[in-house]
TrEMBL record:
Catalysis performed (reactions): phosphoenolpyruvate + UDP-N-acetyl-alpha-D-glucosamine = UDP-N-acetyl-3-O-(1-carboxyvinyl)-alpha-D-glucosamine + phosphate
Gene Ontology BP, a term: UDP-N-acetylgalactosamine biosynthetic process
Enzyme class name: transferase
UniProt name for this protein: UDP-N-acetylglucosamine 1-carboxyvinyltransferase
Family: Belongs to the EPSP synthase family. MurA subfamily.
Enzyme Commission no: 2.5.1.7
Amino acid sequence: MEKLVIHGGAKLYGEVEISGAKNAAVAILPAALMVSKGKSVIENIPAIDDVHCLERIIESIGGKIEKNGSTYSIDATDELKVVADTEDVRKMRASYYLVGALLGRYKSAKVELPGGCAIGVRPMDQHIKGFEALGAKVTMEHGSITAKADKLIGANIFFDVVSVGSTINVMLAATLAEGQTVLENVAREPHVVDVANFLNTMGADIKGAGTDVIRINGVKELHGCNYSVIPDQIEAGTYMIATAACGGRVTIKNIIPKHMESISAKLEEMGVQVEELDDSLIITSEPSQLKAVNIKTLPYPGFPTDVQQPMSVLMSIAKGRSIINESIWESRFKHMDELKKMGASVLVEGRTAILEGVPKLSGATVRATDLRAGAAMVIAGLIAEGKTEIYDIEHIYRGYPDIEDKFKNLGADIRIEQY
Ligand code: EPU
């Protein structure tokens, strides 16, 4: 087993290269299975455990993958199995995209119900509502979701909640449906747009991704293409926040600054300097000057829930009282108990957390309770006085490529140890 050991206190200087977006990659890989002609060559796939897990799942149903660094070539021209039921399928949340992809291509899919981070109830009612509107019969039995249709026919679908997963999943199926589908009240996240762009490059006809209405004209088949996944907004945000918390000056490279606006604006409000270049941001910070702020997590372009946990660490050392309202996931404060062990002053009441800034955190033995909680613990360890040990770090490797090397290159004292 592995743990992360951090000696806090170093300021961060230098450059960090951001990898491809996890939440785009985990949808684009299943989408590549919809291609019946030619190979899809996809660049900038992040080296994270969720992607490795998905690779095994794709191979288990008959997809072929060749890898060259972060470039994946996917060949799904041979007939695929429409049943995905391995242990890996149950492990990761994004397995649900196999339903949309296989239903679109084969009008039939059976997928074991997915796992993922324990951050709240994770219903699939909106996915199901969308598939049913397209003409599929959907059943949930014995821990599996089964969707079947004689044919899929375009429909008008108004989602009850703004959901990344159901927007992408229904878009996948509708791409190969007959006629036009109009999806309303959809998620506008950069990864939704990225998946739509990928599908269009393969011959789909999707318009409006990035707004709250997506129009899809169904096509008969998709063909192979070359594509590059967008940079990871959440990984970038994590390094921006880490720099703000540790102090120093770091260039966050290979990003789309527009995707970072809600985070940049909050950091500026706290007194952090954010300089915007074409495809990078320079963060300069003096932690003793940080001021308290309030955040409410919201769908894009609001403040992302996936950055809330790292941000809470920064708030824990900012002068004054900061308030977080978590509007997306009801159990995304599990890391607060770990943060308290390090000296943070936090009161959690339902979906609200109130943090009274303290001058410093102190090293402790803590756990990564989920993926972004793990990133939060790393930042906490980097700013704490003395030694921090983080256990259960497998969660972190689900979503952060080379995290210890990236921080080491910026001057942090962080290493992996076996135990
Ligand atoms: N929801 C429903 N019904 C549904 C689907 C969702 O009520 O059928 C609700 C959820 O309970 C939640 C809200 O809608 O309150 C938003 O959920 P969404 O569907 O957007 O979440 P998701 O697709 O399951 C993705 C990311 C999460 C990220 C959320 C929100 C992937 C693989 N996961 O999850 O990422 O928090 O969107 O942006 O894309 C992470 O990367 O750490 C992570 C958890």
